[in-house]
Amino acid sequence: MRNLRRTRDYLRMLRVFHRDSVRAEIAYRADFLAGLVMTLYWLAWAILGVALFYRFTDTILDWTFPEALTVLGMFFLMNGLRQFLVSPNLRQMAEHIRLGTLDYLLLKPASPQFLVSLRRFNPVLWPDLVLGLATAVTGAILYNGPPGVALLLLFAVTLIAAVLIVYALGLTLLSLLVWTVQADGLDDLITAVFEVGRFPVDFYGGFVARLFTFVLPVALLTTLPALALLSRLSLAGAGIAMAVAVIGLVLSSLLWRIALRSYAGASA
Amino acid sequence: MWQTYRGLLVVSWREAMAFRAGLVVYLLSTVFPFVMLGVWLTVSRQTSPAGLDAEYFVAYYVVTAVVNQLTTVWVAYIWDREIRLGGLNARLLRPRDPVHHLLCQELCRRALAGSVGVAALVVLLVVVPGFRRPGSVAEAALAVLAVLAAFALKFLMASAISMLAFWLTQVGRIYMLWWGVGFFLSGWIAPLATLPEGLRSVAELSPFAATLATPVHALIGELPAAEALRLLGVAAVWILIFLVLYRVLWRAGLRRYDAVGS
């Protein structure tokens, strides 16, 4: 009963935080529209970029154009999520540390992890999320018709796993920030790592493909959910994705606690 | 003038050096050319796209990364910020046109960021005998000229577009729209040879090819001297066009800026 109420409290806070972020942006309504146009523009160029490879061959390592399109859609979705969730909180956290306001945050009667990792959103990225998902689904429909319910469930599992992994990566960066203080470098690095997710991970071959599957799980963010949507993924594959997500979540929370313990406070 | 430039360059170099701690991270984040290289290598194992082989792609994208470091300019964001937020006021009080300081800053930043890439390229050329390179001293000289032209053209394009900030508020986005086209026509996404035939000739006459494809091809020995001279001629025309455009817009913009301020 108590747990249920706490969960409800946190969900309410989450809603307030998002509304707060939207209000900060709504003043620039024209900006939001221009953002939508820009997303469409970049998406079109990205699709043309993939099409360039397929001028010379029908399949690249058994990936046809619609299948690669599904991965590209997942890339827009996950890269959008990174900019929607990770980047704004990273910047906010850097402010907190520089100005010493993190100390106040730690006094609040809610989980500090929650307050730093889910406090800010960048609603300008909503078009990226929606258009990315739409592109992924379009690719899947072009490949083998409208997906069934079972398939969508499997896709949902991999999608949830991917979202959790993005969150865990974001939390890891927030923890590292306690030591490095500079947000820009960390943001540049994760941007670069995500860039690899633009294409199916097999495209890079051998060592690089393994690196981005097992060490830096970018493949789990874009290639794997795409495979689920294309009904090329087994149940076990989805299970492994979920397991990695849970392990990532636990490890990153642990790192966050260690970081917080080493944080001496601005006043000390 | 020389005295001024020496002073500005010393100051700018110190400013650039303050940034050196972030340099490693900044260089690591140049991932895109290598991502594209990875895919083209896979494709070239299956077929020979546009008659290009793996060796070409490796040379093309490695040199693309280096040329990009040497020629990427940030001056558009600085102009935009200064004009929109009024930082220009303080700059206008000084006796010299602010563009000289911005140019020096950009040169120093590029020299610092580019030095790592150039060093890596030199090591590659020495260690890997088969790595593509200019065929003669003359071609090498033209390649250096092409890199300088690319830098000049990018600086002037950014400056000319930024001048629109005197009239508009969304210049950052206009600049992005411009480069959306540019990413394709410059050869950043893929070598121009992989584009459809018609698009390729458009690209070569556009200002974009001169910002990347021309210097890269010159550096990997894919441009005979005559061809290099022709493409450098195209670059020179565009440099002139954007120089005039930038100066005209700057003068007109300043008149309007005075009107707003007074």
What does this structure look like?
The complex is a heterodimer of chains A (268) and B (262). With 268 residues, chain A is mostly helical. Chain A has one domain (2-262). Helix content of chain A is 78%, strand content 0%. Chain A is built from 12 helices and no strands. In chain A, α7 (149-180) packs parallel to α12 (235-262). The mean pLDDT of chain A is 91. Chain B has helices at 2-17, 23-28, 32-46, 54-71, 75-85, 88-93, 98-127, 137-162, 171-185, 197-205, 213-219, 225-261. The model of chain B has no long low-confidence stretch (mean pLDDT 91). The longest helix of chain B has 37 residues, at 225-261. Chain B is mostly helical. Chain B has one domain (2-261). In chain B, α5 (75-85) packs parallel to α8 (137-162). The chains are: A mainly alpha (268), B mainly alpha (262). Chain A binds chain B through residues 34, 38, 41-42, 45, 48-49, 52-53, 55-57, 60-61, 182, 184-185, 188-189, 191-193, 195-196, 198-199, 203-205, 208, and chain B through 22, 25-26, 28-32, 35, 38-43, 46-47, 49-50, 170, 173, 176-177, 180, 183-184, 189-190, 194-196.
Low-confidence stretches of chain A: none
- Given the helix and strand composition of chain A, which structural class is it? mainly alpha
Main beta sheet of chain B: strand number and arrangement? none
Approximately how much beta-strand content do the residues of chain A carry? under 5%
Oligomer: heterodimer
